Amino acid sequence: MKSATIAVRAVVIPLAVALAAVALAACGDGDAGFQGWVEANLIFVGPDETGRVETLAVREGDATTKGARLFTVDADLQQADVMSAEAAVTNAQQAHERAQQLLKTQAGTQKTFEDAEASLRTAQARLNSARTRLARRQVASPVEGTVQQIYFRPGEMVPAGRPIVALLPPGNMKVRFFVPEAALPRIAYGDTITVRCDGCAGDITAKVSFIAKTAEFTPPVIYSQEERAKLVFLVEALPNRPENLRVGQPVTVTLAGQEAKK
Question: Taking the model in full, what pTM does it have?
Answer without folding.
Answer: 0.70
